[in-house]
Hints:
Elements: E1 2-11, H1 15-22, E2 41-43, E3 52-55, E4 58-66, E5 70-77, E6 81-93, E7 96-107, H2 110-139, H3 150-168
Antiparallel strand pairs: 1-7, 2-3, 3-4, 4-5, 5-6, 6-7
Helix pairs in contact: 2-3
Amino acid sequence: xxxxxIHKRTIHQSEVKVSGLFKTLxxxxxxxxxxxxxxxxxxxxxxxxxxSGGHGRIRYxxxxxxxxxxxxxxxxxxxNFTGTHELKIYSLDVQxxxxxxxxxxxxxxxKATLLWCLxxxxxxxxxxxxxxxxxxxxxxxxxxxxxxxxxxxxxxxIYKRKSFKIKQA
Length: 169
């Protein structure tokens, strides 16, 4: 199945300010990734072309990287997810920046297609919106806090239980 999943958000700040914030991604000072709600994003040797890492059960390799502007990853896991996801920053004008996250992939088995349609897509969409909220919340005093759908709440509970059982084994 062909998958194209795009999230966009306009941030009313200059590209320079937003770009500076994006340079913290996957560092110890990361102010974007919603690590308080989701598994942390980690790369053993930092964000550099060729380095592998990921978050939770999702694994990928950095294939393009311009600090604070653009990063593109190629999926390694789950199996049968063939493609990329990327994060880009665009200046719309002097005080307005657009951030875009895009997945472009194929699921190459029935299991992968079901995994995407029933589970990962829902969790991914919530995670990206949480991250975009963090970007806005960094700059503004009125804080956004995404309200999850009942399906996302259920999936998160199942995931937490499975993660706990794995750790206890």
